[in-house]
Design a protein that fits this description.
Elements lengths: L7 H29 L24 E4 L19 H4 L9 E5 L3 E3 L2 E3 L11 E6 L4 E6 L4 E4 L4 E4 L1 E6 L2 H4 L1 E6 L7 E8 L2 E3 L3 E6 L6 E8 L2 E3 L4 E6 L12 E7 L2 E3 L13 E6 L1 E7 L2 E3 L14 E6 L2 E6 L2 E3 L10 E5 L7 E3 L2 E3 L6 E5 L7 E6 L2 E3 L11 E5 L2 E7 L2 E4 L10 E3 L3 E7 L2 E4 L5 E3 L8 E4 L2 E3 L6 E3 L2 E3 L2 H8 L3 E2 L2 E2 L8 E4 L17 E4 L2 H4 L39
Parallel strand pairs: 1-2, 2-5, 3-6, 4-7, 5-8, 6-9, 7-10, 8-11, 9-12, 10-13, 11-14, 12-15, 13-16, 14-17, 15-18, 16-19, 17-20, 18-21, 19-22, 20-23, 21-24, 22-25, 23-26, 24-27, 25-28, 26-29, 27-30, 28-31, 29-32, 30-33, 31-34, 32-35, 33-36, 34-37, 35-38, 36-39, 37-40
Antiparallel strand pairs: 40-41, 42-43, 44-45
């Protein structure tokens, strides 16, 4: 580790306190010497012997305690160091562990640099010991920085930013600015709580594409940060020669909430989890809620709960995004596949109560890099609470191609005068397939497709369209209230000579899910599955996905195994309560 320049004053203070403690130990030893002098000559008592052993990884252990002494060796709890500043001077080797006393508070920062490294079998570990988690408070600095190195485990800690840390610094900063496209392997972050920083946890790649590989961020809370809870980024995207900074990134059981956004920023701020420049990433069993509330009213880009951009082969599954907001008139949704995302999948997710779209596929650039993605087996409920130009599921932008939207259940209820549709489509779509979904509204259009569409651009088959008091559907410049008329004039909802789809009432009912299925969510205030109680009325409306070359998956939203091609909607049958 390396010492930071802004710790020099604290170092002198620590040395003065260490000298006082040393003088006290000398006086105590002299008093004891006077008592035993008649029995044996006393020339200074030796320190008690405490054997120091290597840990199970074959490395060294170093301990920190607020009752420690920076002049001690730091190798046992009894001879612990006192400050992060002292720990920052040690060069950590494979298998070494830096252990902070649980429940104690330590001021300052830790910097793990190129001279410190472990590997996947013997990583360097920074963690708590004893009862509870140690608290690192950083005033105007990062909490923990890992710079141009890897083989690192950070676990069971609380990091709290103060002062300008909220404006300028990241809580856990994983940075690679190496030349070339080198990927530094093996990073693990688990059991941490990060708040009060610009970003809670950030992976930052180099300008030429260097970054990290085999990264797992698990069981963490990132909250009350300014720009984002968890963020990954990298170099500018080149559609002709894409380079991704990070590979094999897994985000699991992360809760991101109250990351408010910057009211003075012109860019997007206030997201829960945002991953850019990632190849082969997974976000699962995570929750994003109440983010973006203070984002700028003038920003041209807004925040989302969980989203990705400039990335490929991403999977979002078994997550929840709710009550996310935007300060402006854009975004503020639950989930997003944004610019330049390809070969990616969103499945088994729940999105509700967001300002913007429940699920968004969007591209701002016509480079045709947004392609071959799927949105399936999700539930969208009451989204577009602020912005009716979005909807439950939305596909729009300069170019979105080869997008499959199937087996979702969408309920869109009005929020006063705001009436967002269940499905919104806009032109510049290249082959979008919408199949076997349930679309229900209470007055807004079930589908709002503005502009010119035909079956070479959008194909809709096997869907259910319903409103309790009737429904409307916008298709280009025309409005429809009758499925047969729309089918006849648009060519939609047909498969050869067969009429597909239905306008039957699905009788949607909220059912809590039993534990164990993919629909079970963590993070508190989540809602159950929307299940059709009138499945018989939907019988025969769906299309056979396998006959169309579409993968129907292995399970529905509730985790029930699938046999054959599924019926309409995200939940097949009624899950056990």
């Amino acid at each position: 580790m390396r010492r930071r320049r802004d710790d020099r004053g604290a170092t002198r203070s620590g040395e003065a306190e260490g000298a006082v403690a040393a003088r006290r130990r000398v006086r105590a030893a002299l008093g004891l010497c006077a008592v035993v002098a008649l029995l044996a000559g006393c020339g200074g008592l030796p320190s008690p012997h405490v054997p120091v052993r290597e840990n199970a990884q074959g490395g060294r252990d170093f301990y920190l305690s607020p009752h420690g002494d920076d002049h001690a060796d730091g190798r046992t709890p009894q001879t612990a160091w006192r400050t992060l500043r002292r720990a920052d001077t040690v060069r950590l080797k494979p298998g070494d562990r830096l252990r902070l006393q649980g429940g104690a508070r330590f001021s300052g920062t830790l910097s793990v640099g190129p001279g410190d490294a472990g590997d996947s079998r013997r990583p360097v570990v920074i963690e708590s010991y004893g009862d509870g988690r140690a608290i690192v408070t950083a005033a105007g600095t990062r909490g923990i920085e890992v710079h141009d190195t890897s083989g690192i485990v950070i676990r069971d800690l609380v990091l709290a930013g103060k002062g300008t840390s909220y404006r300028d610094q990241d809580g856990i900063s994983l940075v690679s600015d190496l030349s070339g496209r080198r990927k530094l392997p093996y990073i693990r972050v688990s059991g941490v709580d990060v708040s009060g920083f610009r970003n809670g946890i950030r992976l930052h790649g180099g300008a030429e594409g260097s970054g990290f590989r085999d990264v797992v961020i698990d069981d963490c809370a990132v909250h009350d940060n300014k720009d984002a809870g968890l963020v990954a980024d990298g170099p500018a995207f080149d559609a002709d020669a894409p380079v991704y900074a990070h590979e094999k990134l897994t985000v699991s059981k992360v809760v991101a909430f109250k990351n408010a956004g910057d009211p003075a920023a012109s860019r997007n701020t206030g997201s829960g989890i945002v991953l850019g420049s990632v190849s082969h990433g997974v976000v699962q069993e995570s929750v994003a809620h109440d983010n973006g509330g203070s984002s700028s009213a003038d920003a041209l880009e807004g925040p989302e709960g969980i989203w990705t951009y400039d990335s490929t082969r991403m999977v979002f599954q078994r997550n929840v995004a709710y009550d996310n907001h935007t300060g402006s008139q854009v975004d503020g949704g639950g989930f997003g596949l944004d610019n330049n995302v390809s070969y990616s999948l969103m499945q088994y997710n729940l999105s509700y109560g967001n300002d913007g779209a429940g699920f968004l596929a969007y591209s701002a650039v016509p480079n045709r890099a947004h392609t071959d993605n799927a949105i399936r087996y999700n539930i969208s409920r009451d989204n577009g609470r602020k912005l009716q130009d979005y909807g439950g599921i939305v596909a729009l932008g300069s170019w979105v191609a080869n997008l499959a939207i199937y087996q979702n259940t969408v309920l869109a209820s009005a929020n006063g005068s705001v009436r967002a549709p269940a499905l919104r489509l806009q032109p510049n779509l290249g082959a979008v397939w919408v199949r076997n979904n349930v679309f229900v509204t209470d007055g807004a259009p079930v589908v709002a497709a503005q502009g010119h569409f035909d079956t070479s651009e959008v194909e809709m088959q096997g869907n259910d369209y319903h409103g309790p008091a009737g429904w409307t559907l916008q298709w280009g410049d025309h409005w429809y209230t009758d499925l047969a008329a729309w089918r006849r004039e648009s060519g939609q909802e047909t498969q050869g000579s067969r009429a597909t789809g239905t306008a039957a009432d699905p009788c949607l009912t909220e059912v809590p899910l039993s534990t164990g299925g993919p629909g079970v969510r963590g993070g508190g205030a989540t809602r159950g599955a929307l299940v059709s109680r009138c499945a018989h009325a939907l019988a025969g409306a769906a299309v056979d996905l396998r006959s169309l070359g579409v993968d129907p998956g292995t399970a529905d939203y509730a985790g029930a195994p699938l046999t054959g091609s599924p019926a309409v909607g995200a939940v097949q049958g009624a899950p056990k309560a």
